[in-house]
């Protein structure tokens, strides 16, 4: 299973594609890659995630990056760690409660990474599988997961420079992405904007391609983080 996932990550053309394949091959709920690098000129982090656009928008708007305990622990740690079962308090506890209320799985595993150029990143795995199953999986897979995480990091290094460039989106593409981040599907957006559903889907498709993303959720994430839309 890990060998198949590793091969899928190697064959992926982008980090977005790599984390999506990684998630699907191993049955995680979500996978997130975050590098401790600010992208210029936007000053936003290099983040790739499979979380839905509504949660991504909420995370950004509430500035959860500053209180997310997994991010804090991930960039402080030198070894992978299980983040479920921790006793969170204060703002961190409120954040975790909000995350669970919005569909984030209640179990997770974080893999801190640092390469020879001292670039740091974390790969966070999120799941809602049974605790016993999850513990057994980690017991036999930890070393393999770290190797795959390093492959994803290497792929990300090649995208850092390109990610710093903010792609130009047409006004209608921005509008359609904005309403997607607010939880509307193509049919509802068509009514709101007075367009056909086909036209809305076309705008979303071209926006996704311009942003270099495999899925619409990933496109919304990059648009929000890049300041292209403000849900």
UniProtKB/TrEMBL annotation:
The keyword Lipoprotein does not apply. Residues 162-227 form the HTH luxR-type domain. InterPro entries: Sig_transdc_resp-reg_C-effctor (IPR016032), TF_LuxR_autoind-bd_dom (IPR005143), TF_LuxR_autoind-bd_dom_sf (IPR036693), Tscrpt_reg_LuxR_C (IPR000792), WH-like_DNA-bd_sf (IPR036388). Keywords: DNA-binding, Transcription, Transcription regulation. This is LuxR family transcriptional regulator. It comes from the Bacteria. Coiled coil: none annotated. The keyword Nucleus does not apply. The lineage of its organism: Bacteria, Pseudomonadati, Pseudomonadota, Alphaproteobacteria, Hyphomicrobiales. CDD domains: LuxR_C_like.
